[in-house]
Design a protein that fits this description.
The protein is of the alpha+beta class and about 475 residues long. Helices cover about 35% and strands about 20% of the residues. Helix 8 crosses helix 10 and helix 9 crosses helix 10.
Length: about 475
């Protein structure tokens, strides 16, 4: 266009800065386009140079790790007490969500869940006594992820708690997770009232043995198949599990009826599962865990194998760096809060449930469950955009986990820490929100982006691992 004709045409604005800069343009009904651009994440140039120099080797390693992840076949094979099957479990050990943390640094909801677990185990007679025990070092703490396990929200697993036992039949590794308590005031959100403990005891004495017999009757349940179907039915199997829970219910109900000790027990167990849309969450999480654990310890791989939060820190692990944690402060989610609560009441993000996003589900598959974005006042197109962005930081697509709204494209899978740093795009995560004080429970649900610091540190850790290798 000739410069003399420039001002004869309608002006159109291309905004490269903050999206809020478009507000006045929108109010004036001026046409504008927002450029979805982010600066690269700040990292040590020497570390970046080391990683870039090994790009070919890393790409090959990522292809190997991704192939293991995609080939995973997670099955539910049984239920047992944690002490009997979880590696390294002891009577005085409490497993928790996220990276390692001490009692002194634990957030309110995690402390509340620990207190409730100690009362549940009979190690303390009251929450107050439990808090004193924990502060005095009478119990030990360790991340669920370091014991082939995962736990939602506070993620607490104690010795007597029943756990699902999963097996990745492609690679043979096992994974574990507690049973979901339902919504409201529950242990995983830091509540420890007598009714919370009573429900846990019912789960131990009635729900657990009934489900154990039912699964034994069936032999095993194909969880990958259920997840694939649920994605076609509006779930992303993190925040929304209604379809997946219904499919699990259909699979297990006949066996419950046939193996329960009496009709009333069968009815109560099935009513509990049916009345809790989040029942399947405690299966989608370990299904993701056993899938990702198969992709661990691949030399040179920059794929993220863990994202987890303990309510204080947000931590990640990489395939090439094994069990090393890279952490930063956990953010507070954007959320829809229950009546009477606000962001001021919210604890920073907490839970191992981001293992679903790490495996290409949850927020990475949110386009399959657009209703979730209503938690923060979003639209269906926002859900599609979230998933499309996640393809930019992933190394593969899962052809089994397909997203109808994207023409059945496979979900973005295998987060590459290099791409996160290079593009400044951070994993999107669906999440519940716990009150920051112990004993209160859930106050909302929402969505957030992972913080940058763990990924900055992870790139440096990868560079150290690559250092000196040819």
């Amino acid at each position: 266009m000739a410069i003399k004709d420039l001002f004869k045409s309608q002006l159109q604005v291309v905004n490269v800065g903050l999206e809020s800069f478009r507000t006045s343009l929108d109010q004036a009904h001026a046409p504008s386009v927002q450029v979805d651009w982010r600066p690269p994440v700040a990292v040590d140039p020497k570390d970046l140079k080391k990683v870039q120099a090994r790009a070919e080797a890393i790409d090959k390693a990522n292809a190997k790790a991704a192939a293991k992840l995609l080939a995973a076949k997670p099955f539910l094979i049984g239920l047992e007490k944690a002490l009997d099957v979880v590696p390294g479990m002891k009577e005085d050990l409490i497993l928790h969500a996220g990276p390692p943390i001490t009692w002194e640094r634990m957030c309110g909801p995690m402390r509340g869940a620990v207190m409730g677990a100690l009362v549940y185990e009979g190690l303390a007679q009251s929450p107050e006594e439990a808090a004193k025990m924990a502060a005095a070092g009478a119990v030990k703490f360790s991340p669920c992820h370091e014991h082939s396990a995962v736990g939602p929200m506070a993620g607490i697993i104690s010795a007597s708690m029943p756990v699902y036992v999963l097996k990745n039949e492609e690679h043979g590794n096992l994974g574990f997770c507690t049973l979901n308590e339902g919504l409201g005031k529950v242990l995983r959100y830091g509540a420890y009232a007598p009714e919370v403990i009573a429900k846990l005891k019912w789960m131990e004495t009635t729900l657990y043995p009934t489900l154990k017999k039912a699964v034994a009757k069936l032999g095993k349940i194909d969880l990958k198949n259920i997840i694939a179907q649920a994605l076609h039915m509006g779930d992303e199997v993190h925040t929304r599990n209604r379809a997946a829970t219904s499919l699990f219910y259909r699979a297990i109900a006949p066996a419950v009826v046939r193996t329960a000790p009496d009709p009333e027990t069968a009815a109560k167990v099935l009513e509990f599962l049916n009345g809790n849309d989040h029942s399947f969450l405690n299966l989608s999480m370990p299904a993701s865990k056993v899938s990702l654990d198969a992709a661990r310890d691949v030399k040179d791989s920059s794929i993220v194998t863990v994202m987890a939060r303990n309510g204080t820190d947000f931590g990640i692990q990489l395939s090439a760096t094994g069990n090393e944690w890279f952490t930063g402060p956990a953010p507070v989610p954007d959320a829809l809060y229950f009546p009477g609560f606000s962001k001021a009441d919210a604890n920073p993000d907490i839970g191992d449930s981001a293992i679903t996003e790490t495996a290409g589900l949850g927020g990475f598959a949110i386009a399959a469950a657009p209703a979730i974005v209503q938690f923060i006042g979003g639209s269906a197109s926002d859900a599609l955009d979230h998933t499309r962005r996640m393809y930019e930081i992933s190394v593969a697509e899962n052809s089994v986990y397909q997203i109808p709204g994207l023409d059945f494209r496979g979900s973005p899978t295998g987060i590459d820490v290099r791409k996160v740093v290079e593009k400044g795009i951070f994993p999107v995560i669906d999440t519940g929100v716990a009150h920051r004080e112990p004993g209160i429970g859930q106050v909302g649900a929402g969505i957030l982006s992972a913080p940058p610091e763990p990924f900055q540190k992870a790139l440096a850790g990868l560079a150290r691992k690559l250092g000196g290798k040819k």
